[in-house]
Design a protein that fits this description.
Elements lengths: L1 H22 L14 E6 L31 H17 L26 E6 L2 E6 L4 E7 L16 E7 L2 E7 L17 E8 L4 E9 L8 E9 L15 E3 L6 E3 L3
Parallel strand pairs: 4-5
Antiparallel strand pairs: 1-2, 1-9, 2-3, 3-4, 5-6, 6-7, 7-8, 8-9, 10-11
């Protein structure tokens, strides 16, 4: 009788122990850096009606302005002339031409300047960035092999592959359409954009951006963007429809059809 009881206890222990063992097995958990998931707005606040107006709990020095692109000649002179012409149009109260006028998305890297809020979602094997402006969606595939430059189908946001280096997400992007330009800077199909995204604290996200292009640039073009977390913000639908803007053929500025 006693032996039967002991055997029964041992059998019960063996059955009940299995779930405990299963709970101790390694489980794939989100990295600490996965806290980048959420809604973000550009920092510092621009005072232009964008953003929540809430300052971070821990002050962070604002990033320096984006420097002039190190363009090769004659592209540098042509770009500077375009900037001067646009500045003159603005002085006259005439809005310069823009991709927004044509209802076209910003493309990379411009979409990451986040004039409107953006949302970052981390899922297994992928980080997705959704920019409210023009409903732009960018997919970063983790540890993926990028296509050869000559084989990369041109896209507004290009082809992006990312990897975690500790708590920094390093992203490489190629294959951006040549007509998708940041600050009107021309580029070739060989342009490569490298980003290093890391949390400075739970509220602030830093993005160190480097653009390289052997055909148009004399060297790397580097700057830093920062974003402030906006808890609870829900990305709105942004559709550019019934567009009435067009290019004035003579003065090259945006005009609005009134009929």
């Amino acid at each position: 009788m006693r032996a039967n009881v002991i055997l029964g206890v041992l059998a019960l222990a063996a059955v009940t122990a299995e779930p405990a063992v299963a709970q101790t097995r390694p489980v794939s958990q989100p990295r600490a850096a996965a806290r980048i998931t959420g809604s973000w707005e550009i920092y510092p606040l621009r005072g232009e009606g964008f953003g929540s107006g809430v300052q971070p709990k821990v002050p962070v020095a604002a990033p320096k302005p984006v420097p002039e692109a190190p363009l090769r000649q004659p592209h540098l002179d042509a770009w500077r002339k375009l900037l001067a012409d646009n500045a003159e149009l603005t002085r006259k109260g005439l809005p310069p031409l823009s991709t927004g006028m044509a209802c076209m998305p910003d493309g990379m890297p411009a979409m990451m300047q986040a004039t409107f809020p953006m949302e970052i979602l981390e899922t297994p094997g992928q980080v997705t960035i959704i920019q409210e402006a023009f409903n732009q969606v960018r997919r970063i595939y983790l540890n993926a092999t990028l296509p050869a430059v000559d084989d990369a189908d041109p896209r507004f946001n290009g082809h992006s592959s990312g990897r975690w280096e500790g708590t920094t997400l390093v992203v490489t992007t190629i294959g951006v359409k040549e007509n998708a330009r940041f600050r009107n800077v021309p580029h070739s199909a060989k342009m490569r954009v490298t980003e290093r995204l890391r949390l400075l604290n739970d509220e602030m996200l830093e993005n160190q951006v480097t653009v390289e292009d052997p055909e148009y640039l004399t060297g790397p073009w580097t700057w830093t963007w920062m974003y402030k977390r906006w808890p609870g913000y829900k990305i709105e639908e942004y559709v550019c429809e019934d567009n009435r803007y067009f290019e004035d053929p003579a003065q090259k500025y945006q005009r609005l059809r009134v009929n």
